[in-house]
Structure formats: C-alpha cells, structure tokens
Amino acid sequence: MSVDQLKTQIQNLQDELNRIKRNVSSEVVVTRDKIESMSSEVTDSNPYSRLMALQRMGIVNNYDRIRQRSVAIVGVGGVGSVTADMLTRCGIGKLILFDYDKVELANMNRLFFTPDQAGLSKVDAAAKTLNFINPDVEILTNNYNITTMEFFVHFVHAIQTGGVEEGKPVDLVLSCVDNFEARMAINTACNELSLNWIESGVSENAVSGHIQFIRPGETACFACAPPLVVAENIDEKTLKREGVCAASLPTTMGIVAGMLVQNTLKYLLNFGTVSDYLGYNALIDFFPKMILKPNPTCDDRYCIERQKDFSKRPKKEHSEVVVEKDEPIHEENLYGIVLVEENEADKSASIDSCNPISVGLKQVFETPSAAPHSITPVVNNDDVSLDDLMAQMKAM
Amino acid sequence: MSVDQLKTQIQNLQDELNRIKRNVSSEVVVTRDKIESMSSEVTDSNPYSRLMALQRMGIVNNYDRIRQRSVAIVGVGGVGSVTADMLTRCGIGKLILFDYDKVELANMNRLFFTPDQAGLSKVDAAAKTLNFINPDVEILTNNYNITTMEFFVHFVHAIQTGGVEEGKPVDLVLSCVDNFEARMAINTACNELSLNWIESGVSENAVSGHIQFIRPGETACFACAPPLVVAENIDEKTLKREGVCAASLPTTMGIVAGMLVQNTLKYLLNFGTVSDYLGYNALIDFFPKMILKPNPTCDDRYCIERQKDFSKRPKKEHSEVVVEKDEPIHEENLYGIVLVEENEADKSASIDSCNPISVGLKQVFETPSAAPHSITPVVNNDDVSLDDLMAQMKAM
Q1: Are residues B10 and A13, on separate chains, in Cβ contact within 8 Å?
Q2: How far apart are CA B217 and CA A124, in angstroms?
Q3: So what's the pLDDT on residue A55?
C-alpha cells in the first residue's frame, strides 16, 4: 500500500471515529448546562417554565424555594426510583439515595430502570439517569443496607447532616423500602432526630398501596401501630429458589410514588393539605384517608419523648389540622358525586388473604387472651395531664 | 512519517474505533432478545415474573392474554408518554401512538422524555425508548394531527384495523390529548366505530385531573356533556410569544397515567371494577367518582345510534354495573376511615378560577335564559319504551 493510500485510510478512520464520537456525545453523554436560577420565561428550552407557572396560577408562592430543599429516599426500587425521577424533574435542591440492591431484568415491569442497567447498583444507575435528566440537582448515593449496625450509624449521620445548608438535616425522609426491618430502622432514626418522614408501601399482590406522613410526637410513628403480620427476614434468594416472588405493577407503584411526591411538594412548598394517611385500592379505585394519633404506650422511647415535646407546643396548631380534615365544606351534592365504600374485592386484596399465615410470615404480636389488642389510633385526651398519662403508663 | 509509523497509527485508530463501538453497543444499542411466551419462572432475568405472579396471587386469571391486546394512545405528552411506558412494561401486544408535536426541554418537568430527545418527534422518540425497554411490544407511530380532515380519515382507519389480529379494531383507545378539538375527534371516531375509549385530562393549574371511561351508547360520550368552557384553537406559538403556558407537574400526570393504565388493565384482563369516572384533586387528595349516563338528546348522531343499540341489549348487564358501585358493602367503620368531601381548596382549583373568562377561552354554550342547561348525568327511565323516548326526543 502506498503512503498516500495509508494516509487516506487514516483520514477515513479518523472521520469515522469523529462521527461516532459526535453521535455518542450528542445521544448519550452531553446534556444541558446547569441553570443558575429558575426562570418563568416561556421558551421551548426552559425546563422550569411549567413549574414556575404554578406561581402565576396561584398554587405556590415561591416555587424556586424547592432548590433549598433536601430529601432522603430510602429504597430506590419500583416506588423509590420514580419518586427520585419526579423530584429531580421538579428541580429539588438535593437528593440522597439509599439502596444496596442491583438492577435486574426482573425489575423491568416497573418504571424508570432500563434493560442496559441490569447488574448495576440501583443507586448508581439511578444517579446517572437523574444527573442526565437534570444536572441542577445534587445527587448523593449510599450503596448499603441501613438495617445493619454499621450502616445504620452512617444513615443517621447522613440524614442528620444532609440538608442543602451544610450540617443541617434533610427536610424530609421518604421511605420506599419493601420490608419491616428497614421501616423500623427509619422510624428509630427519625424519632431520635425528630425528623418528619413519609412511609410508603405497595401490597404483595400489587393492587393496593399507601402513604403515611409521620411527624414524631404529633402522629403515630411506625412502632405506635405496627402491622400485625410481617414477612420474616428470610434471604430473598431463598424465596427465589422456591420460585416465589411478589407481584408488582408499574401503575400501582407509579400512583403511590405520585401520591408520595405530591404530598412531599405540598409539605416542602407549603400549599394544599398534606395527607396524614392516604391509601389506594386499585381493584375499586378507592382512596381511604385516616388520621393516626400517636400511641402513648409506644415501645419507642424517642416517640414518647417527641410526644412530650409536642404536647408542650401550643394546642391551636394541633386541633387546626384535625378540624380542617373532618369538616365537610359542601353540604350540597350538585353533581351527584358518589363516595364508594370498600367492597368485597378490597377484602380479598387485604392481608386477610394470607390467613392462615403463609410460609415466611410471622405474628409480630400474639393475640391477647382477654380483649383483642387494639390497633385503632389512640386519641390523646387533652383533659388528662401528661403526668397522669405517664403515671398510667408506668402502672401498665 | 514512515510506512510502519502510518501502519501503527492505523492500528491504533482501529483499536480505538472497536473499543468505542463495543462500548456503544453494550451501553446503548444492544437490548435483550425477544421472549417467545410469558413465563412465571422466578429468575433475575425474567421481565415478566412479577406480572405473571398476579395469577398466583389470584388477581388475574390469564395475564398473558395481554399479548393479544392492542391499544391506541392519542397524545404522547405528559400523560400519554407515561401511559405508553407503563403498558410497554406490562407487555401489551401492540401500541399505536398518535402525536404531531416535538420533544422540548420545556417538557423535562414531566416523566419519560430525556433532554437528548429535544427536537425529535414525540412519537419517534417514544417508540425508540419503548422498543429498547421491551422489544416484545409492537409499536406503530403516526406523526400527524388527527383533527385535520386528511389525517382524521387515516386515524379512523388506523384504530379500526389496528388490532393484534389483522383487520380487527384496537381493543381500546386512550385519549391523552390536551385540547377540546382532539377529544371531539376521538369521540366522533369512537362513536361511529362503536369503540370503547378512556378520556383523560389534567387541569391547566396542574393540581387536578380525571379519567372517564366512554362506552358508546352505554355511558355519556364526550359530546353528551361537554365542558361548558374550553380554550379556543389558538396557535400555541401565539400563546408562548405572550409568555403564557399551562403549569404541569410530573406527580399529577403520573397519577392520572397510573389511573388510566390501571383501569385499562382491569378492562383488558377482566379483573376488579373499571371506574366510569375517576377524578383527582391534588390539593386535598380527593378522588371523586361518578357514573355518567348518555344524553338522549346528544348532538352526535352516532351516539344516538349507539344508545339505540345498547337499549336492545339485555337489561341485566346494564343494572349490574350500577348496583355494584352504589351499594356500600361494609356497614361498620372499624378503623374510623373518614371520607373527605371536596373543600374550598378544591373550588379554587377548578375552572371557576378563570371566571370571568380569561383570554383564549370561549363559552361553548350560551347560558339559557330560563332554567340553566343541566350537565347532570341523564338517567334512562327503563319503564319508558325506546319508541316513547324517540317520540319525546322528536317533540323537543
């Protein structure tokens, strides 16, 4: 081959290389520059115009305060990944992700992850996508199990110091985990730190879910009224060997993530009413709401301390929330709107379907021989002093 | 440069090219092979295990029937794109997408699209992502505006012949459009073809939405009780020049898409109860339900024909649905579940906030001088014969 031919070949190879690099960079690597401050300018290239429009519409006063907010998401699976996606697109200041699992093709029936991410850690795969979608959001990842002694300490420190302002705690913790132990770990940490958090969950049969806003001392914590029946801490691989897995649907998980982030936005940006408990029954499109008062005999000593703190705060703030939610405003029913009660379909979808208790489930509490143990929310009797209550508790 | 040096350079360039091509193919292009039939085998690599588990859980009888189902999605924006994503991950047989818009950075506050897709047509960008997520789903794209005369004809033909079985109609049409004209076009087509469809919508202030299941002749069509006020067909670019855009949130759109696809799954796979109308008020987490009967004086002549067809069907099928939804099953209220009525917050979020009517809005109907035009659902009186009804209609 002549020198000229070789040079031509080199030129061709270089051209092809540049073409591929250009394609790769335009399709995969390159994203938009960071945006200094959120603008309400209506242009095709402004990713915040539709969010800042919430101000013009009179929904939110200062939308861009969201940049000063930090949220921890524990569990980046079917609910947590979509939660992170939504908050990233809303332009949240900072997200701290916790998970120790890897992406699998078996997760592709839920939103967010893509088949090429199989084998990557969930937090790393998520952070890469989220950074690409919105480089303005600061994303921190923690690839560990928060229920182990060592990492629980790290988790507590991370949420205690993870605020946008250095050294301040995060503004909210979102629980998107799928097991009892992890929920109890979050509960313990948030009770101790007096941090508000929202618990979320989706049933094993994929057709119901819920969110529960927990404000230590003010509402029931996760230990105040824990589930009566939970799955034992069996290694997931053991279950898989036996050919068993929970059902899941992108619809139910997307709706629960939507309910979770919507209430997060209402809380962080101070608009609308944040729900204490919102359930979802997919079979009949039923969305129950509840108010859960803290249990004065809760096993968690920090919960008891927080209840003490809360009872010292002015009463007005307390009763306001309850009145707002209990009082129907419209007496008329002009459009014949029908509120549907739970029906039999719901019953079959509940934990009752596991009765008698299936393999891998254990009773957390034994059924007392006399009166049944009540998980009905315990309402504080405001006429009784805290000292009386404490005395009663000690007498129990 | 010597020939040897040139050859070395060529070798280096070829190595780099191969390395990049390998990376690109493993990270971007290559996806999983098609899967012949859905399996319930519990392995990390089975993308259908969590869906097939719905059978073991007793929720769905034959989940894999979903492969024989075809759905048309009109509008691939904030709601439509997530709808397509969910159905693709659920393994639907076939999806037919309709949209004429392009992806913009201004859409990044909603789920699904990514910044690198800015400038691409929404249907093409969506199809590429969906094929990548699940190559088992057949995806057809139509990049046009269905409200133009020419493309309306094409649209009607596409949904009439778009079933999984050749020449059969699609099983369901999902409306995810954002304007009155497009909804009326879908309504006209589905009334004529007697095709069931689900309408969806999100308010301009981003904090409410709804889905409405329309079964021609059986439930109210979109022309039976159209909105009293709609935006005029102003060029979106004109609005944008004036610095105006609607607000939107990934949460509200994700929840509406979730409600839409959940009801689609219930309808296609025959489980649970499909809602006729389900609303969502984000400010107070209120989800109103309604039953909308067809209007015997509907302007759409095909709607009247379909009502005639429906009245000839056995009555049992008709009343069954109503009873199931109206009858509360549980008389007790063991857990103190509170059903919250719409409150003032809801009122401010409604179209009333546009009163007096804003720029770009027009009254579809003028307020009659005598009794107000009722949009309350019209209930068929089953004791009156169809002939009587027709005679009454003619006398009107």
Answers
A1: yes
A2: 52
A3: 96
Which entry of A245, A298, A303, A354 is annotated as an active-site residue? A245
The string of DSSP codes covering B218-235 is TB--TTTS--SEEE----
Rounded distance between C-alpha atoms, residue B381 and residue B54, angstroms: 40
Region B11-37: what's the mean pLDDT? 70
Determine the longest span between alpha carbons in chain B, in angstroms.
101
Nearest to A245 among B49, B91, B353 (CB): B49
pLDDT at site B1: 74
φ, ψ (nearest 5 deg) of residue B257: -60, -40
Residue A363: beta bridge partners? A229
Is cis: bond before A216, omega within 30 of 0? Answer: no
C-alpha B384, offset from chain centre: 36
Cα separation, B302 vs A47, in Å, equals: 42
Choose among B300, B279, B301, B282: nearest CA to B290.
B279
Nearest C-alpha in B relative to A283: B272
Chain A stretch 57-116, residues whose beta carbon is closer than 8 A to a beta carbon of chain B = 57-59, 82, 85-86, 89-91, 104-111, 114-116
Give me the amino acid identity at A25.
Answer: S
A176 is known as an active-site residue: no
**pLDDT tens track for A203-228:** 999 999 999 999 999 999 999 987 77
Q: Which of A229, A393, A218, A367 is nearest to A292 (CA)?
A: A218
Radius of gyration for the alpha carbons in chain A, expressed in angstroms and rounded = 25
In the prediction, which pLDDT does A329 show? 46
A48-71 pLDDT, tens digit each: 999 999 999 999 999 999 999 999
Distance from CA of B250 to the nearest CA of A (A): 6
Tokens of B381: 């009186």
- Residue B87 predicted with pLDDT over 70: yes
Q: Write out the CATH class of domain A69-318.
A: alpha beta
- CATH architecture for residues B49-318: 3-Layer(aba) Sandwich (3.40)
Low-confidence residues in chain A, pLDDT < 50: 25-30, 317-329, 331, 341-360, 364-386, 389-390, 393-396
- Inter-chain CB proximity B106 and A45 less than 8 Å: yes
Q: What is the largest CA-CA distance in chain A?
A: 101
**A20 at B interface, C-beta within 8 A:** yes
Q: Which is more confident, B206 or A346?
A: B206
What are the sequence ranges of the domains in chain B? 49-318
3-state SS assignment for residue A67: helix
Query: Which of B10, B27, B43 faces A6 most closely, judged by CB atoms?
Result: B10
Tokens 């981003």 locate to B206
DSSP B216: B
In one letter, which amino acid is B288? Answer: P
Q: Is A297:A373 a contact under the CB 8 Å cutoff?
A: no
Q: How far is the C-alpha of A214 from the C-alpha of A294, rounded, in Å? A: 10
Predicted pLDDT at A15: 76
